[in-house]
Task: inverse folding
């Protein structure tokens, strides 16, 4: 591990010539450990995580303003296979659509983030695998974030090293769903199939605009205890204030009401009366947007306001991919209570005049 950190530091200090590639093939290995974010998950860990990741990367060509604002990022698809270091979880895999954002103009350091489909070979089963209390489905959503450094050996060959997180969850569509978090270190080699000159970087002007107010709603489903029960409907009605702060980012807040048809039943299971009003939870949330026009990544942190049902706590987080049109916004993403996914949701919003 000490040697790996040396490679990372060397990558961060490298300052070599870069030429953009029309297509890049990246092959790497990862090693790390599963992070049991609940004490009752400690028994799942038998050993270390090991795996291999392969990716195709497509550098942007400067045709969009956000290409210039983000130092010509790349996008791509990756496939990975992991030994999860747990006899109760087995092996895992993922197929990810990712965005690789350099943090400097020489592309020596950066952050890669992506979302896709994940696979776990040994999910919870009431007959054959009752000791897997982390995840109840083979197919899941998969998310990853990696911070890396890069050395350019030539116009075609580079080496990368970094650290990151790999997350598997089914959004509570099939219990149990505590989720699986892997902390990994990665070393990879990248080969550029064809090099082309990098476009000249300019800083396009961002049109000044006033704040916008949207009204909308979202919906999803989730499963509540006991295992195997029917899916509950979830939804939100909201107003959302958004303000573009810079070429890259924006801020705002959201006020709304969350509805979950299973909360009253959960209250009954906990020994309370379980009135229908417990299914409704008013909330307020602050938000940050990263603009990749016409898309945006939206991160929200919020709190329920005096909810009758308090078993989930007050604080929640949302992670959305937003597609913006002239008057409409469409979005999809995940809601969580701290490290535990609550539900996957999709929605629509309309900009009020």
Result:
């Amino acid at each position: 591990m000490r040697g790996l950190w040396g490679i990372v530091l060397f990558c961060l200090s490298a300052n070599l010539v870069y030429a953009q590639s029309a297509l890049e093939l990246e092959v790497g290995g990862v090693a790390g450990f599963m992070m049991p974010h609940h004490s009752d998950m400690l028994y799942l860990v038998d050993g270390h995580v090991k795996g291999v990741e392969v990716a195709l990367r497509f550098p942007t060509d400067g045709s969009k303003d956000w290409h210039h604002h983000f130092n010509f990022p790349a996008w791509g698809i990756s496939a990975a296979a992991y030994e999860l270091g747990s006899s109760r979880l087995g092996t895992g895999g993922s197929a990810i659509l990712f965005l690789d954002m350099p943090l400097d103009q020489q592309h020596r350091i950066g952050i890669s983030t992506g979302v896709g489909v994940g696979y776990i070979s040994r999910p919870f089963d009431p007959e054959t695998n009752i000791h897997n209390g982390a995840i109840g489905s083979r197919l899941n959503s998969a998310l990853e974030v990696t911070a890396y450094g890069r050395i350019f050996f030539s116009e075609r060959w580079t080496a990368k090293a970094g650290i990151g997180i790999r997350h598997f969850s089914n959004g509570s569509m099939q219990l149990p769903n505590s989720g699986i978090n892997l902390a990994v270190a990665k070393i990879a080699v990248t080969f550029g199939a064809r090099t082309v000159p990098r476009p000249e970087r300019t800083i396009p002007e961002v049109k000044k605009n006033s704040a916008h107010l949207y009204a909308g709603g979202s919906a999803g489903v989730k499963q509540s205890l006991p295992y195997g029960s029917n899916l509950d409907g979830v939804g939100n009605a909201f107003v959302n204030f958004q303000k573009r702060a810079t070429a890259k980012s924006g801020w705002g807040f959201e006020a709304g009401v969350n509805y979950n048809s299973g909360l009253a039943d959960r209250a009954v299971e906990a020994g309370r009366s379980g009135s229908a009003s417990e299914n409704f939870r008013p909330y307020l949330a602050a938000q940050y947007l990263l603009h990749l026009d016409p898309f945006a990544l939206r991160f929200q942190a919020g709190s329920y306001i005096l909810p009758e049902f308090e078993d989930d706590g007050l604080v929640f987080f949302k992670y959305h991919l937003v597609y913006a049109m002239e008057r409409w916004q469409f979005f999809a993403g995940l809601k969580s209570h701290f490290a535990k996914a609550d539900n996957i949701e999709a929605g629509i919003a309309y900009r009020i005049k």
Observations:
- Helices lie at 2-13, 65-69, 263-269.
- The longest helix spans residues 2-13.
